[in-house]
Write a structure and sequence with these properties.
The structure is a single chain. This protein has 197 residues and is α/β, with parallel strands linked by helices. The chain folds into 2 domains: 119 residues, 3-Layer(aba) Sandwich (Rossmann fold), CATH 3.40.50; 70 residues, Rossmann fold, CATH 3.40.50. The protein is built from 9 helices and 5 strands; from the N terminus they run E-H-E-H-H-H-H-E-E-H-H-H-E-H. The chain has a 5-stranded parallel beta sheet with strand order 2-3-1-4-5, sandwiched between helices. Helix 2 packs across helix 3, helix 2 crosses helix 5 and helix 3 runs antiparallel to helix 5. It is globular, with a radius of gyration of 17 Å. It starts with a strand and ends with a helix. It binds adenosine-5'-triphosphate. The site of adenosine-5'-triphosphate has 15 residues, from helix 1 and helix 6.
Length: 197
């Protein structure tokens, strides 16, 4: 089964676009949500995280101390890379076993850090969602009720659209002046036609 990754900067519209793919009958794996679950549930990962970041990484009830972990990795690329390096292999295993349960011509893996985590190497094609900075900031401020500076902070920790685009097999332009559904349908039909041949 063909594996298609979808990525894009914060607020670019990945999740919204994935809802349309789901309507088309395509199964979507949410790598960010599964990464959080792995961090919380996978005993092997938990052990390694405690080893690397200290016992404070988890609360007494076993849940992740997100504030603590965020502080450990904020503005520290090496620490962030280390954390991703602990979580990512477990997500990869989880993704592969999830695929075994899916049917359809292809599956989608949605990941904000598909490129940064190296997970792009494990998919056959990559869809990159682009939207201009101004729209992304406005959308995230509305969605999360946060200030512009918070959105910019998260944006600055990610790759630029241009860097991401260099990995793209397909680009979706999700700016306000573009119709997004025809772009999704074109990509869907293109992938289906190739997966049939
Ligand atoms: P994140 O990386 O933060 O998870 P995302 O890329 O998944 O973000 P979405 O959550 O899909 O982005 O979109 C961000 C917000 O922008 C949402 O509230 C969504 O409803 C809105 N949005 C997405 N696309 C459009 C669009 N074309 N027009 C108007 N609003 C949009």
């Amino acid at each position: 089964m063909l594996k298609v990754g979808i990525t894009g900067g914060i607020g670019s519209g990945k999740s919204t676009i994935c809802k349309v793919f789901k309507q088309l009958g395509i199964a979507v794996y949410d790598a960010d949500a599964r990464g959080k679950a792995v961090l919380e549930e996978n005993e092997d990962v938990k052990e390694k995280v405690v080893e690397a970041f200290g016992i404070g990484a988890y609360n007494e009830n076993g849940s992740v101390n997100r504030l603590f972990l965020a502080e450990q990795v904020f503005s520290k690329p090496d620490a962030l890379e280390k954390l991703n390096g602990l979580v990512h292999p477990a997500v990869r295993v989880d993704f592969e076993s999830w695929i075994d349960e899916q049917t359809g011509a292809y599956v989608i893996k949605e990941a904000a850090i598909l490129i940064e985590s190296g997970a792009y190497k494990e998919v056959d094609e990559i869809i990159v969602v682009n939207a201009n900075e101004e729209s992304r900031i406005r959308r995230v401020m509305n969605r999360d009720q946060v200030e512009e500076s918070k959105v910019r902070e998260r944006m600055n920790a990610q790759l630029s659209d241009a860097e991401r685009a260099s990995y793209a097999s397909h680009i979706i332009d999700n700016n306000d002046d573009q119709l997004v559904i025809p772009q999704i349908l074109r990509i869907h039909e293109d992938i289906i036609s190739r997966s049939n041949s």
